[in-house]
Amino acid sequence: MRAAWLLLPALAALSAYYVYLPLPGAVSDPWKLMLLDATFRAVQQTCHLIHYLRLSHHLIVLNYLICTFDKLKSVSSEDIKITDAVFDGVEVRVFEPPAKGDESLKRSVVYIHGGGWALASARTSLYNNLCRIMAESLNAVVVSVEYRLVPEVCFPEQYHDALRATKHFLQPDVLAEYSVDPSRIAISGDSAGGNLAAAVCQQLSKDEDLPVRPKLQALIYPVLQAFDFNTPSYQQNMNMPVLPRYVMINYWIDYINGNYDLAHELLINNHTALNVGRALSFRARLNWTSLLPPSFKKNYKPVVQSTGTAAIVERLPALLDVRAVPLLADDATLARQPRTYVLTCENDVLRDDGAMYAARLERAGVPVTLDHFLDCFHGCMIFTVWPTDFSAGVQTRNSYIKWLDENL
């Protein structure tokens, strides 16, 4: 008994040490965020052990656990018709509000979920809940794309899935089937889904035969570049939950089918050093010293290697492929983009990806709204359901839906 009394405080101290992280003073719900991050880290470590033992790929196990936990949550859909369909070989989930007598056609949003191109699903309650609320609040048809994930497929298959599903939906006969107004359609996504949404919008703008084009794009803390992993936000938030820098680099490696041995070279920007000829022409398009406001740049300095490893780009050409890295698009492509909303969070490694894209779009003549939240963190918008309910989630979701309602 005496040993137990000694052991319990020791376990409590170890648990507190594992959970506690120094967080910025302004971050929303800090202790709840620490608990969420500690849970996610513990699950990831378990999945990596299973991977190390060669029992299964860690991402498959992690996604299985996420979906299993998610099934414990029920989401009401009494007023919204939810159906699963297949658009040009790609699974989608469609959310339809009830018809109203005083209208003939509805607005619509094509939504592409996040998860590092490897996790989550259009069918999980987190995204089911988001899309249902969007459909209700906007009285809009919401199409949530169920693209294939890493490790089943890697780039460019996720991009092709999102593009095929979107182009199918934009056909006049399909829009008529769902009573959608062809002039009031938005393409949207969060995180890796924001990456796919931006890439899809860029490609659609180049398709001269497309009969219907999106009116808007709305990108939620999007991941838009793998050129520079030392932007001010990557430096400032390198250890920030729920997306520390090394995790984002690993997601990129998984997405472009690389090797984790390259993680350190990517981290120090060896892949885009001054001696890497293929990267030189893109450098001005990601020059954060001219694209970011002083409040984002702070006192951080660029990390530019004079001599790096050109072979990385040779082995992984997707690092400079605009379909994977939308921020590398040329000015002519950006000028063709629709009115754009970009949501960024201060406590997020991806903050500057979104801010740089907004700045480049604005310089290209595109109307842009950059909606920045000082107390929020990456992924927060989907965390609105107990036990992962955050005030930051409700705050960002309401602002996002408000912009769509006013502009769509």
Automatic annotation (TrEMBL):
Cite the InterPro entries for this sequence.
AB_hydrolase_3, AB_hydrolase_fold, Arylacetamide_deacetylase, GDXG_lipolytic_enzyme, Lipase_GDXG_put_SER_AS
Give the bilayer topology: Single-pass type II membrane protein
Question: Which Gene3D superfamilies does this one have?
Answer: alpha/beta hydrolase
Q: Which GO terms describe its biological process?
A: lipid catabolic process
Q: Which GO terms describe its cellular component?
A: plasma membrane
* EC number per UniProt: 3.1.1.71
- Residue ranges occupied by any Alpha/beta hydrolase fold-3 domain in the UniProt entry: 109-267, 320-381
Question: How far does the signal peptide extend, from start to end residue?
Answer: none
Instruction: State its location(s).
Output: Cell membrane; Microsome
As one GO molecular function, the record gives: acetylalkylglycerol acetylhydrolase activity
User: SUPFAM superfamilies this protein is in?
Assistant: alpha/beta-Hydrolases
What is the top EC class of this enzyme, as a single word? Answer: hydrolase
Question: Which PROSITE patterns does this entry report, sorted A to Z?
Answer: LIPASE_GDXG_SER
Q: Catalytic activity, per the record?
A: 1-O-hexadecyl-2-acetyl-sn-glycerol + H2O = 1-O-hexadecyl-sn-glycerol + acetate + H(+); cholesteryl (9Z-octadecenoate) + H2O = cholesterol + (9Z)-octadecenoate + H(+); a cholesterol ester + H2O = cholesterol + a fatty acid + H(+); a 1-O-alkyl-2-acetyl-sn-glycerol + H2O = a 1-O-alkyl-sn-glycerol + acetate + H(+)
Alphabetized UniProt keyword annotations: Cell membrane, Endoplasmic reticulum, Glycoprotein, Hydrolase, Lipid degradation, Lipid metabolism, Membrane, Microsome, Signal-anchor, Transmembrane, Transmembrane helix
Chief location bin: membrane
Question: Superkingdom, according to UniProt?
Answer: Eukaryota
Q: Where is the active site?
A: S191, D348, H378
Stated family = Belongs to the 'GDXG' lipolytic enzyme family.
Q: What is this protein called?
A: Neutral cholesterol ester hydrolase 1
Q: Which gene encodes it?
A: Nceh1
